[in-house]
Amino acid sequence: SDRGPPFIIPDAASGTEKPMDAQRRRIVQGGAGASVLGALATAGMLLPSVSLAARNADAFGATELAAAFAALGAEVRQDSDGVQLIVADVAEDGAVVPVGVISTLTQTEAIAILVAGNPNPLAAVFTLPAGTAAEVHTRVRMRDSSAIHALVRADGRFFVISREVRVSFSGCQG
Which site from 12, 75, 104, 120 is most exposed, i.e. has the minimal number of CB atoms within 10 Å? Predict the structure, then answer.
């Protein structure tokens, strides 16, 4: 097959020039392609969503808390002392409310954070590979003072803990 003209590279050992072999050329071209993809991803022009699991559009699109729970498969859930919700009682700025969830339940598979007072209550879902420490920390937006719910799926069952959070300044203003 025609691979085009060979690249001429200096041979440091002999002080002469020689053609680049085909395998080395493919490696150099592949490295350049990977560099371009990395630069595009860094610039935000290439999104990682291609490699991520499919997003639960029904759950994230739900406009009511009960519908979000149902779309996650958590129609039946129980309170648990094995789930800890870390959030301040008063959030000064609703645009950046720090939230943490820790689960001591065995076989924790997923953790979701829901904000009851938001137009779309489901704020985040984290899927945890087996053997991973069941602890997540993030920041969520809160439109108004409301309850924040931490939903944990462990061993195929759902557990929830909730806390009321008062917001001083709304984070969901148009």
Answer: 12
Helix (H) or strand (E) holding 69: helix 65-71
Q: What's CA 70's distance to the chain center, in Å?
A: 21
Cβ partners under 8 Å of residue 44, min gap 6: none
Q: pLDDT tens, position by position, for the chain (174 residues)?
A: 455 555 566 666 677 766 656 555 555 555 555 565 565 555 554 444 433 345 788 999 999 999 999 999 999 999 999 999 999 999 999 999 999 999 999 999 999 999 999 999 999 999 998 888 999 999 999 999 999 999 999 999 999 999 999 998 765 555
User: Hey, what are 27's tokens?
Assistant: 């490696």
Length of the chain equals 174
